[in-house]
Every structure is written in structure tokens, then in C-alpha cells.
Amino acid sequence: MHLLNLLAGSDDEPTKSIAEKIHGQLDGLDSKQKRLIEVLRILDAAGEVDEQTLEAVNATWGYLITNRLWESQYQSLESLKDEIDYEQTVKVFLEKHELLTSRKQADARKIQICWGQPPHKALPDRIRPPKFSQNLLQQLLRLSKICPLNEAVVLLQSEIDRRILKAGCSGRDRSKPYVLRGDVLSVLHLLKQRLPNHDNQAQSQPSETATLPCDNRPDGVPIDFMVAVRQASIQNGTATDKTDGAGKEDDEGGDEDEDGAEDIHSGDDEDEEEDEDDDIGNGDNEDEEEDGDEVGDMHKGNDKDKEGDEDIESDKSGEETVTKVPTPSSCRCSPTIINGIQDVKGNIDDIKGLRLLAEAIQTGLLNVCHLHLRMLAKTTVGLQNNMSGCKLRKRLQDAWRKRNHLDYLRRRNPHWFLKTQRPEIGADRLVVYRYHPIPPNIFRFDEIRVFERFAGRGSWGTWERDGTIIIPKLFRFLSRLDIRQKIDVEFDLYRHHHRSLPGRSRLGWLRNMFYSIIQQTVRQDPVWYAMNAAARPDKNWRLISYPYITKDTDPGENTGFLHLDLNTTQYVKDGSGGNLLSSSIALDDEQADGCTIGVPGFHHHIRDWHKRLIDRGEDTAGFTTNCSAAYRVQDRKDWGEPIPMPCPALGLRLTRPEIIHGSTPRSYRRRRSLFAWYTGIDDTHTSLDMKGTLSWNDLAACHRDLEAPSREPSGQAPRYGLPGFRFPGSVITRSSSAIGDVLVGRRKWTDPQAMRERDILLGSDDAAARSYVDCIREEMIKRYEEAFEQLKIVETEAFGENSYFRQKELGLPMESNDYSDEIEVSEDAEDGDEDLSMSGLSSEDEL
Questions:
Q1: Which residue windows does the record flag with biased composition (Polar residues) (predicted)?
Q2: pLDDT per position as a tens digit, 441-457
């Protein structure tokens, strides 16, 4: 009779209880032997029936959820749950099923550790059951701990054959040709008979067929030698874990190791993952082996096998070491063990350490004095050694049994091992902190909402279509007359101190102006940052401003060029440089005859154009791509002529790197621009967007020290001269916001205040974001005015009679910036990269 059928009953016997049905079925058999067989079969099937019930409920409920069956009768799923008392019925079964599944998975993983394969692969087809129940997995786990896979398969096949033969032609379930739980129990019983006193610290010599737990061994250790070690360890009382030589209970709490032998008649709960650390308060005075713990008094506690005097001190890594060698009268250890320990210099590799441990186990750990036992534990496998002798021997035995899975053992019980001999754990990072912080949530934002919040409705469509956009009056908070006048003074000051390189065209750049007060101020502007974060293709909000020079053209200067801020070949290959947007603030109203020019929408055609370049044999590999000659007449017909894109004063120009852009050939009036070059940071605050650029730490140091970076935003080294020191007349502006600090490297994006401000600025509340911007910009103006007053003092003290402010105060004529010796450079005369101030990065309006 099948147990499920028995429980379900039949229509013709609706009034009979389960007990009556079982008794009736058993009484119908003609002998006690048959009745016993049937009883055992029912009991064996009971666990599987319970498991099948849980699976049935889980599958049924899952089907109901997937197909939304409740909608045919109930208004909601909650209504159905109330009707069927879900919390007290179905939910209980679902939780039990989840627990059962997790236990089965855990058992399967442990079996894989011992046998090298999960159970469904370890057992051959001929004996593999169609399904592994929890009870079956538990018994297979016990078997895997004490018997190699090859031998286990032979024994299981033999037991299956014996069971089938015994069942005869009854046709009952016991004739099944695959492994049943009872087969595994029989094999376990058979193995116990091979080592009858295993669990009682047997001193008898095992048979020659005895094998080591798990059919594996470390490289370099002969198998014959390992068998001898196993035999010797049993003979010397070191193969079991229950007692030491005096018969004292092991202070590990009696839990058996995963790979060790265990009482095969113990309950299923014996299969717990791994013996955890010792029970607290067990009387052995063991600390929770933290690195560098004090050893304590070697002559107190329960350990009675300590011999000799010893001195304990700390080595350079903070781990404890034994430094005094025992006296001959107190130590009778094998010279091989002593010499092996003394020969170890520094950390030993596992293979050499296990060889030495194998020697000690063959000799018998009880024959090693306590001092050398401690040294052995540290030098062979890197164990902490501030504990009793029996516990130390236990852990050495655990390490030996898990010699093929030492990394697993170290991850499982990191507090057993020295810090230098185990993987890093969370406590290592906490050091003196007590708790782990709650990890921040992944931050996402609506880029279109943020973009149009500051650029206006419909601006995102323009950006997507053209890849470039001009947003007027975005920086109107700088429009106060006194602020504009101070900005003019700063530009005049840096022109006063600027030295043009002989024989090189200035091309309208102030190459000494990296950290003026106005530059430091606008780099921290929340709106400029938000626009760049929203417009970047990768939506990376972790940005930092890359220090760059300013544009300040004179009438009549040559400024013409046409290029791409990309290594086009590399961009087409892997997208390199595609996130580095160029953006600039115009300080003067630009006109069509003196402004940036560009090809709107070219980002849609750059790959087609690059293919055309290859076909022409004109592919380039520079940091930027010179388009003055490469963008030919046919290209212009197909994809458009470069057109003027004048920007009004205090407006923002934002451009994708795939847009061909440049400048009108000559300057007819003064034109000044500021650049932020917001560059992406990786989530570890280590590296930046572009290969070859400075690291985050180096760039933060540049901001801190007001020094020019040795690499440009493109990664190229400057070619027009780089100041070797901080401009002596510069001052640092004070902080105006947490986000502002992050943008100039004073904080990281992991800073809680910066993240809170980010959530407001890039969040969904438009009113809150605008209010935040107004507040921060007001602070920025205050900090600018404070710093400007300091600038007067610092620049005057730094340059004396050559000071800009001193000469202006005395009414002396300013020394003329004579650029008459500059070589006029046209875009046809030089390489396109040479048209740029510091590199082939952006043009005069480089954004």
C-alpha cells in the first residue's frame, strides 16, 4: 500500500480512521517478517510524504499566483487569503518548504566539498534516485564525510543488490534499483563495523583497507604515507575529536567537523555545517582569537600537558609568537619536528606546512610538547595558538582533514587563523568600530526632468537632436555689477602676470589662469554640475571638475580651428571618451563673426564618417581628431556645414564630444570663457573617465594645492608649457556646499551630506531643487567676495612692486602684454591639435 493512498482513504471506507486502515493492512499479511518489512517501509516513506506535501502546496500556490486565479471570484489576493486563513494554513507550508529547500541545498554543497561533486553528479546513473529527499541527502552527507566516493559507490551498489535480492519477486517498493535512505544507513553501519571503536577513541590498529576522509590529498604528499598517518593517528589517539590523552572532554563543544567521522547512529542534526567556535564560558580561558590577543598565563587553565617555560611576544604583524626554545629536560619532541619548525622563515606555503603537519601527526600530536605544539600550529597552517593543548590539537586535526579545502576552512572560521594566513573579513575593516553601516541605496534620477528643470521645457529634445545646446542666462546670479567688475579685475590681473611663450601663438588663451577665484567658484555651481550629470550618456553623477585654463581673446588674434574632442578610432571601437562633455560659460556676448562653430547632429553620423575616413586612408589615432581638412566638401553636403553658435553673456554652452566644432578664424572683440570639464569618477574614487588622466587622489591634490595638473582632461600631456608651481597670488575659496566640495575634491561622493544634497538637486521635487540652488548660489557669492578681498592682500605681498594691485593703486601704467612676437597660426599651417591651448581638447570655447 502506498502511504499517500492510505492517508487519502477510499470512498467505500469513509468512516475508518487512519489507525484502523493501517492495522487492517498489516493484519492482512501472513507473517511477522512481512509485517515488519511493511512497517519499516511505511516509516521510511513518512518523511518523503511530508516533503511531497510541502512541494504540492508550494507548486499549487505558485500556480495560483502566476495565473491570478483569484480574480475569478475575489476582488483581491488579500481577500482570498482572509477567506482561507492563509497565515495559519498555506503560509506555514510555504515557509516549511523554503526551509526544507535551503537545507537540502546546504547538504548538497557539503557533499560536494567531500566528494568533489554534487550528489546528482556523484552517483552514477544506475543507482541515482529520480529525486533526492531531505532524509536521503542527510544520510549521503554523513557517508561522504567518512568514505571516499569510489568506495561509497561500490558499497551502495552492493547494498542495493542485497536489498533487491532480499525483496524477491514481491514487486514492492524495496525492489527499486536506485539508492534509498535505508541503503545508505546500511552502508554507514557496515563502515562502523570496520572501525568498531572509532567513536570511543580506539587504540587498535585499523585494517590496511582503511582510507582517509575524502578521497583527495594535497600535492606532494604520497598516498601511502597518508594512509600510514591515518593509522598512526588512530593508534596514538589523535584521529578522534572527543577526548585528548587524559580522556578530557574536548572543549569544542563536541560538534564534529564536516569532513570528520561521526557516530553514524546519531540523529540527523549531527550534520550541522561545521563545528563553530567553542562555547562561551567553557572554562578553557580561550579568547575569541582576535589578532594580537594576549597569550595569558601559560601555567593556568585546564591544560595539563604544558611543558617547559616560554616567552610570548608579538611579531611585526601583531601576531603572537613563541621565542624561547624549551629546555631538553622539558621537551621530548622528535628532532624532525623541532628542526622543521625552526627552519620556517616567515609565512610558509600550505604544501610545505602540511608536510610538516603530516610528520607531527604520524609521530602523534600527544607526543609534541605544548610549546612546540603552539609553534607547529602557527608555522604549518597559520593557526592562532593562544589556547589549551587539547583545543589546539583538535584544530590541527580539523586543518589536516580539510587539507584539500583549507581556503574554505579559513573563510568559515577566520578567527582560528592569523590575519596573514586567512582572507580578509568584515571585522578587519571595522577595526575599532563595532557595527557595519547600512549600505546606501542605489541612486537613480530622471535625467530629462533634471535637464529641463534648468534648461527649459523642450530642451531635452534639442539636446538629443543636435548634441549641442546653448542655454542663455543660466548663470545670471553673476550679473551684479560689482561681481562683474571683480571678474574683470581677475582677468586683468592674470593678463598682467601672463608670459607668452616665444615663437608660439597664444591663440586667445590665458595659460596661467587655472585657479582664479571666479574659476574656483563656478566649478562648484550645482546647476552646471546637474546639467552635465543629466546630459552624460552613462548618467554617471559622480563627477569632479578637471582644472583648466581660461579663454580671453584680443581683437585680431587668430583663433580658427575645427576638430573633434575624441580619438575617433578608439571611440568607435569601445566608446572611449564618449561621456566627456565639453561645456563653458560665456562672460561676454558673442557675435556670429567671433564665436564657436559646430555641426549640429553630427553625433548621429560619426560612425559613418569614420568608415569613410578609413576608406580614404585618413584614419587618425591622436587624442583629438583634426577636422580642418578631413571634413571634406562631400561630408559637408551629407552632414552639414559648421555654423556659428554665439552664446550670450552668462549663458552655458553644452556639447557632446562627437560633435565637430571649432572657432571662427579670427577674433574681432574680447571674448572670455570659463571651463569646468566635469569628469566621471569610478565608484571607488580611484580613476577617472579618460585613460591617462590623473587619478582622483592626484586631481584632488591639485585642487587643494592650486597646482596645474600634469595631464589634461583628454589624458594628453600639456604641450604649451605648464606652471611648475602654484601661482603665488592665488587664494582658496571657502566651502559653499557639500556638493561644491565634492566637485573640487574636498570630499568624496560617499559623504552623507553630499549624498543628501545630491538627492535634492537631482531629485523629483522641482521646487526643492530650485530652492537649494538659490541658497547655494547666495553662499557662493559671499565666498567669492570674501576671497576677492584676500586676493588683494596675497597678490600684493607676493609680487611687491610688480603687483597688479600695487601698480594700479599707485596709478602706474601697467606693463603691456606685448604679443607682437607671436607667430600667426592658421588652421592650415599647424596640426589641428596645435590649434588648442594645452592639448587637442576643446577650442577656445571648449566646453
A1: 198-210, 324-334
A2: 899 999 999 999 999 99
